[in-house]
Amino acid sequence: MEMARLNIFIVLLVALISNAAAVLAEPTLPTPRPVLVVQTFNKSDVGQLITQGKQFLKSGEHIKAQEVFERAIETSPDNLAAHLGLGRAMLEGGRFAKAEGQFLACTFISPRDNDARFGMAELYEHTGRFADAVLVYKQILKSRILEASDEAHANWSLRRLEYYRSLGDANSAHYVDLSEAHKWKKTAMPVRISIWSDPELKSLKDVFYKSVVRSFEQWRDASGGKVNFVVVPEQRSADIVCKLVRLVRGTRGNGLGLKAGETAQQWDETGSDAFKWSRVEVFWEDHKDARKLDAYVLHEVGHSLGLGHSSNPHDIMFPMAHPPYTGFLSERDRNSIHALYQSK
Ligand SMILES: [Zn+2]
Question: pLDDT tens, 45-57?
C-alpha cells in the first residue's frame, strides 16, 4: 500500500504592534486600568492627561484615549505627545484621515520625530499605500539618531511590506491560486467542526462559539453553499478544531508582528490534495479589545477552508489584523472562496 504523503502547513495572522520595544523588552504585567478621569484641567494637568491617554491606548480603550488627548491639546496646542497620542487613538479607531492629520501636526512640531513617522507608515500599511510606507520606513532608518529598537522595528516592517508585495496583485478579482490551492472535498461536506475555549477564558466562551459559527456561515454563504458545516461536540470526531487559546507571554512575536492566530492544515498529496484535518487557534489576552475577535476568527476560518493571504488590506485574508477590525468579508474574499469551491 502506498504511504500517504501528508503535508502540514501552518499559516499565521499577525497584529501590528505600535512599539518594537514591546516585543524586544521582557514581558511586562498588564497595566492597571486608570480609575479616574479628572474633569477640569490646567497646564500642569497636561502631563497627567498624556499619561492617562497612553494607559487608555495600552488597554485598548481608544475612544477614551481620544477624549483625553483632545483635552490635552485644548490646553497645550503644540504638545507633541498629545498629537501623537491622538493620532494613535484615531488610528486604532480606524479613523485614518484624522489620524493622518495628527501625525502631520507632529511633523510640524518636530520634523524628525520617528514616533510620528511610525504612526504614518502604519496608516499607509492599513490603507494599502505600501510604496509610501516603504519610503517612511527608509526615512526612519536614515535618522541621524536612531535607537536600536526603532531600527529593528523599521527593518521588520520593510520585510513585512516585501511579503505583502509577494502576495500578488491587490486589485485582481480574487486571490486564489487554483493550481496550488487545497480544499475540502465535496464528500467531506458538511465539514464537522468543534469549538473549544481555554477554561481560563471562560467569559469569552459563548462569544467565541458564536463568532466561529458566524464565520463559517459567512464563508458558506459566499461559497454559494458549496461549503457547509455542522458543529460536533467532540474534538476527535471533528475535521476542523477551533480553539481560543490564552496567549503565552514570551511567544508573542514572530518577527513580523504579534501572533493573533494560527491555522494548521494537513492534506494528502498522493490523493486529491484534499484536506485531512485543520486546526484553528486564536490567541487571546485579557485586556485585548473584544471587537478584534471576529476579525481574527473569520481570517483563521478562511485558512481552514483553504484560502491563503491577500495583499489587499480591505480583505479579511490580509495577513495583518488592523483597524477597524471588521468581522466581514470583502467582495474579493467572497469571490475567492467562490472561485476555490466552484473549481474542480
Ligand atoms: Zn493568515
Answer: 899 999 999 999 9
Q: What is the Å distance from ligand 1's center to 7 Cα?
A: 18
Task: Report how far ligand 1's centroid is from the alpha carbon of 311 (Å).
Answer: 11
Residue 197 Cα to ligand 1 middle (Å): 20
Can you tell me the distance from the alpha carbon of 335 to that of 231, in angstroms, rounded to the nearest whole number?
Answer: 25
Query: What is the spatial distance between Cα 213 and Cα 193, in angstroms, rounded to a whole number?
Result: 9
Asked if residues 300 and 46 have their Cβ atoms less than 8 Å apart, the reply is no
Report CA(314)–ligand 1 centroid distance (Å). 14
333 CA distance to ligand 1 middle (Å): 13
6-15+170-342: in CATH 2.60.220.30 = no
Residue holding cell 479628572? 38
Ligand 1 centroid – CA 122 distance (Å): 18
Taken in order 76, 80, 85, 90, is the CA torsion positive or negative?
positive
Please confirm whether the linkage preceding 111 is cis (ω < 30° from 0): no
Write down the pTM of the prediction: 0.85
Domain ranges in the chain with CATH number 3.40.390.10: 6-15+170-342
* Confidence band for 22, pLDDT divided at 50, 70 and 90: very low
Residues of each domain in the chain carrying CATH 1.25.40.10? 31-127+129-166
- Spatial separation of the C-alpha atoms in residues 69 and 158, rounded to whole Å: 30
Compute how many other C-beta atoms are within 10 angstroms of the C-beta atom of residue 51: 13
CA of 301 to the centre of ligand 1 (A): 9
Q: Ligand 1 centroid to 17 CA: how many Å?
A: 16
Q: 31-127+129-166: which CATH topology?
A: 1.25.40
Distance 75 CA to ligand 1 centre (A): 43
Of 51 and 29, which is predicted with more confidence? 51
What is the distance in A from the centroid of ligand 1 to the CA of 263? Answer: 8
With a CB cutoff of 8 Å and minimum separation 6, the contacts of 199 are none
